[in-house]
Amino acid sequence: MSEESLPTDVLPEYAERVLEVADSIPPGHVMTYGDVAEWLEEGGPRQVGRVMALYGGAVPWWRVVRADGALLPGHELEALGHYRDEGTPLKEASRASEGHLPRVDMRRARWDGGERAQGHT
Asked: Is 32 helix (H, G, I), strand (E, B) or coil?
C-alpha cells in the first residue's frame, strides 16, 4: 500500500510527529519546513513538505512555511486570510513582486519552539 492510499487514521510515525509540531505552533507564528525537521531531529525540509502536502489539512498548515516567507502556491488567499485573522506579521509586497502578495515577516513571525510543547522530546 502506498503512502498516498493509507487510511487517514493510520499515519506513518514521522508524519504524526510532523503534524504534532505543526499543531503546536501558536497562532500568529510560523516555523519553516527546515525548522520542523530540526525540531524533530529527523528528516529535512523536503520530507516535512511531503508530510504537509499529504496530511497537513488536519492541522494549521499555514503555520509551516518556506524559509523566504512566500505564501504556499495555490493556497495564497486562504493562507493570507488565516495570517490576517491570527495577526501574523506580514511584509507587504512591493509593486514589482508577482501577484502583489505579501510574505510572512520571518524575522517577527518565526517561532523557535520556545518551551518544548508537552509530549515533544
From this structure: strand
